[in-house]
Amino acid sequence: MHTSGDLRHAEAVRLDAVSKTYGRGDSQVAALRGLTMSFADGTFTAVMGPSGSGKSTFLHCAAGLVQPTSGTVTVGGTDLAGLDDTQLTKLRRDRIGFIFQSFNLLPALTVLQNITLPLQLAGQRPDKTLIRTVVQRVGLGERLGHLPSQLSGGQQQRVAIARALVTRPAVVFADEPTGALDTRTAASVLGLLRESVDTARQTLVMVTHDPVAASHADRVVFLADGAFAGELHRPTPDAAAARMTRLGAWEDDTHRPQGAPQASGGRY
Length: 268
Ligand SMILES: Nc1ncnc2c1ncn2[C@@H]1O[C@H](COP(=O)(O)OP(=O)(O)OP(=O)(O)O)[C@@H](O)[C@H]1O
Description:
GO molecular function, one term: ATP binding
CATH class: Alpha Beta
Helix content: 25-40%
Number of domains: 1
Keywords: ATP-binding, Nucleotide-binding, Transport
Radius of gyration: 18 Å
Protein name: ABC transporter ATP-binding protein
Largest sheet: 6 strands, mixed
Domain ABC transporter: 13-250
Bound molecules: adenosine-5'-triphosphate
Number of helices: 9
Organism: Streptomyces pyxinicus
CATH architecture: 3-Layer(aba) Sandwich
CATH superfamily: P-loop containing nucleotide triphosphate hydrolases
Strand content: 15-25%
């Protein structure tokens, strides 16, 4: 039987009534509106929703990169609001990996140096076998001595993914990690992310527009206008695409995946 302590521990990340408002006065934007959500240890969740629905803001709040206007975020049972800057930096370094849309690589460091930087910052000895596995899996074995400027966008994203995995953080947040990758590389990267959940019990929360990428997750949660708009367990690409269509996500065609149904007439 679970005690309440066990249950709390089984939640890798929890958001309670989280709101985030940007700007003031007339230019005020409510990006998140009282979001309550929980992510269990060792699970893979995809977050989907129309453009501007608050997905990146949610991810940044959950990872302690942005402070919510109100509400509570807990990571591994620790309330982030109770931490000072140094404690928050340490918690992020020790427990959280983040894969940004924009890669955030250091231009003067080689691929290998970028990948192992978090280990150095944390004073950890590199696990050479793990580094080799991660590097091979993301297909960067031949590029370890290159600088980010010598890589394509897709290759830079793979460096960012490898960097987020080598410390084996308890929670990995990923913002469109496969957006810049071709189908085959994307499938391999998603396989690697899935494996990190299944074998290392890492918790993965991934924002994506791609129903195929989302189908690698255990669950998809949908956001619309900064609020929870439903979820799917064991999602198929078709089911995820149909939900996105119902949310009007592809009315402007910006992120419509090939074969996704038209939104017109499909909103209910
Ligand atoms: N730094 C900011 N300052 C002001 N408004 C912001 C800021 N960041 C986001 N917003 C606004 O908050 C809302 C949610 O943005 P967010 O980037 O979280 O959405 P998203 O679902 O990730 O969008 P996309 O799919 O287009 O990346 C949008 O209306 C956006 O314009």
